[in-house]
Amino acid sequence: MRQLLDSHSSGAEWPLPDADLANLDLFTSGFPHALFTTLRGHEGPHFHPATALTPGQEGFWVFSRYRDIVPVARDNVVFSSESGGDREGGGTMIEDLPRSVGVGSVINMMNDPRHRALRRLVAPGITHAKIAALEAVLANAAQAAVDEALRRGHGDLVSDIAAELPLLAIASLLGIPPQDRHQIFAWINAVLDYADRQLGETSQSSAQAMQQFMAYGQRFVEGRRQAPGEDVVSLAVTGELGDGLGRLSSVEQLMVFNVVMVAGLETTRNAIAGGVLAFIEHPGQWTRLQKQRALINPALEEILRWTSPTPYNRRTATCDVEIGDCLIRRGEKVTLWWASANRDDAIFERASEFDVSRATNPHLAFGFGGHGCLGAQLARLEMRVVLNALLDRVDGFDLAGDVEWVRSNKHTGIRRMPIRYSAASPPSARCDDAAGAAGNRF
Ligand code: HEM
């Protein structure tokens, strides 16, 4: 373990001297829950000291308890998603992104009032009705993917099932031609996976993939300028922000395309793959859901709580602020660990149990406050159609090899998960309340 280089005088000491959250090797077997359970046992927040691996050799605040995170996420004036203090860059990752990579121009790294106006502008592109209209096509695709996986009897769940649905969903939402989808997906994977680099670094493959993805986005946005439709990108290129804020700049328009692609693909894929892994590790919960299909909606929320595909987001303090005994100074980085809050036993009964019938589940997997996830309902629909297709056809799963995790502290993701399936018995022999579940809609 690397040595911590400095400490912070104005806040709680970092209680885990051997744990460096900038060391991505800590995240190569999934999210380090045991470490965060220990952290939550210490009154926080805590200042994570600079280490050889922290970008810019700069420390950052760590919020791990649910009740500490919520007020910070709610206050997007003191805690900025854009930047703060004298720093040039900013954004929602531990490493500062430069302004040229979206800080101040992409919705999740913008502050109000422009952020709120942009949300209002694009919201009609992702309404309940628009999402519901995708259900049949997504359900058919999920069923076909599961049938094919079952025909083979085994395979990689990520590439066979979990990756396909989000790709189809986002591509259908935006109107991306089918022949382009897998290439876009490969670029995004290369940008988000830190297999060959450290935080704050680019590698040749990530830089090249980013460049190609941006060039594709530019062509796509230009196409929407020429012939707008009713999708999110068309709304961004044709609409007014209102309140005297004018229109989006061409960079902001491009960033709408980028964020929907990047935010919508990996996260949902990881929720689906992580959800199946949770059922493999808790087979009794699978049997229970098969018998009580009416539990599908609480099961989805439990998968989200359990997998927390976006483990943290960062803010930057815009002024000095005291929290408990800690002084957070203007310009300091503040990280909010949703994945930790989601296992906080001050909020969740039996927080470390995976329970598809959990009745109260105010998880923070989609964040909290003004920047809460815009795609939450779409993600839930994708997860539900996959789960239904699996429940209809699969009695159980086994791991047929090692689970390969993505090397990242920003996405809790599974790169590869070899699975062996056992097919379910015919429909008449199972599901005592499938009819009750037929009316389950988000
Ligand atoms: C299970 C799947 C998903 C998870 C776990 C997830 C998680 C999150 C989280 C934690 C945030 C808050 C970021 C912050 O506070 O800084 C967020 C924001 C966002 N998400 Fe998602 N997301 C998911 C799916 C999607 C999908 C499918 C889309 C697109 C259709 C999407 C689009 C967005 C956008 C645009 C924002 C920024 C909202 C804003 O800043 O106002 N997400 N998401």
TrEMBL record:
Keyword entries, A-Z: Heme, Iron, Metal-binding, Monooxygenase, Oxidoreductase
GO molecular function, one term: cholest-4-en-3-one 26-monooxygenase activity
PANTHER family linked: BIOTIN BIOSYNTHESIS CYTOCHROME P450, P450, PUTATIVE (EUROFUNG)-RELATED
Entry keyword annotation includes Metal-binding: yes
Role, per record: Cytochromes P450 are a group of heme-thiolate monooxygenases. They oxidize a variety of structurally unrelated compounds, including steroids, fatty acids, and xenobiotics.
GO terms under biological process: cholesterol catabolic process
Top-level taxon: Bacteria
Organism: Bradyrhizobium cajani
Keyword Heme assigned: yes
Family membership: Belongs to the cytochrome P450 family.
Protein name according to UniProt: Cytochrome P450
PROSITE patterns, alphabetized: CYTOCHROME_P450
Xref: InterPro entries: Cyt_P450 (IPR001128), Cyt_P450_B (IPR002397), Cyt_P450_CS (IPR017972), Cyt_P450_sf (IPR036396)
CC cofactor: heme
